[in-house]
Amino acid sequence: MSLPKTLAEDVARNLVMVARLIDEDPEEAYAYSRIALRLASRVAAVREAAGFAAYATQKYAEALAEFRAARRMTGSVELWPVMADCERGLGRPEKALAMAGEPEVRKLDKAGQVEMRLVAAGARRDLGQIDAAIVTLQSPELASSSVQSWTPRLRYAYADALLEVGRKDEAREWFGKALEADKDGSTDASDRLAELDGVEFVDVLDDESDDTDETAPEGHDEQDGPVDGPARN
Length: 233
Known about the structure:
The protein is an all-alpha fold and about 230 residues long. It contains 13 helices and two strands, in the order H-H-H-H-H-H-H-H-H-H-H-H-H-E-E. A two-stranded antiparallel ribbon has the order 1-2. Helix 2 (about 25-40) packs antiparallel against helix 3.
């Protein structure tokens, strides 16, 4: 569907703001998505952006409705995994698992199939089926040494599932593998590794501040400030 030039520009500006804010300020991104939706609800890209903004703010019913609308408009299956994850968010893991077995999954590209696997494993965990979740994540993509955009999250999910059943050594190995692949910091694998190793991080600046408050160094006049050097801000 084509829009008049001025309207198209207004819609585009709002979609740009959605993309820019969705990670750092999802509520603000959601507000921009609603404006775009009001201006052009018959545009598939607008419905998809509105879906992701609602998803980011945990408005899963709304997100699912928008994703379904976008899918009707385009006929594409690429939103299938996130639609299934919305079902999880709505407390319907059985529905998410059913979607994982639908023919649409075979039409997904490799990244989409991995996303569907992650959603299915999450649904198994929702149902308390942790061993089944582990089996679900075991795949050629998990075993591959090739690093793709989804590799850190897949390895992380596997490590987290292993840890839940007490397989700590294996979990540590896979958190390490997730960290190796995670060049963009998309997971907190480094923090999980530190936790497993018993490492505690100390805020050095806070400690220095506490020491300064408790004990005044030699040559310090509490009324006039330090004798030597400028005062710290």
